[in-house]
Design a protein that fits this description.
By secondary structure, this protein is of the alpha+beta class. The chain starts with 5 loop residues before the first helix and ends with a helix. The protein is built from 3 helices and 5 strands. A hairpin with a 3-residue loop joins strand 1 (about 20) and strand 2 (about 25-30). A 5-stranded antiparallel β-sheet has the order 1-2-3-5-4, covered by helices on one side. It is globular.
Length: about 140
């Protein structure tokens, strides 16, 4: 456990949280800076700074917990919609470098700017990028 990781400290019980779910591999707790009521986080108990450095089995267990908690949020709050958000690196606005998934209940007209309008892309450029990714 990195000594400066706030999520590792929460997992270890060194920092309190509003826990909503816990199993052997994951912990889910309320975000203390929520963008909407019910905004919570799911983290693996094993530290990985991001998606790229996480192990497949831990990621699978984390996503199973995300689904379970998302269903509970849906049942408890009946939001207008629900977003999952996972950021990797400073360019994606990752603020805590411990893999985590945000569960964000949406409210009608909440003005939360995560959605983007549809804009047709250049098909030749899309094809080139897809080849690069496949390679």
């Amino acid at each position: 456990m990195p000594k400066d990781c706030i999520f590792c400290k929460i997992v270890a019980g060194q920092i309190p949280c509003f826990k909503v779910y816990e199993d052997e591999h994951t912990l889910a707790f309320m975000d203390i800076n929520p963008v909407n009521p019910g905004h919570c986080l799911v983290v693996p108990k094993i530290h990985a700074p991001n998606l790229f450095e996480s192990e497949d089995a831990e990621l699978a267990r984390t996503m199973a917990a995300v689904r379970k908690v998302s269903r509970a949020v849906q049942k408890a709050l009946n939001p207008y919609g629900l977003n999952l958000l996972q950021a990797n690196g400073p360019g994606a606005a990752q603020s805590v470098f411990h893999l985590h998934i945000h569960i964000i209940p949406r409210e009608r007209d909440d003005d939360l700017r995560m959605n983007w309008g549809l804009k047709a892309g250049n098909k030749d450029e899309i094809a080139k990028i897809s080849e690069k990714i496949r390679d």
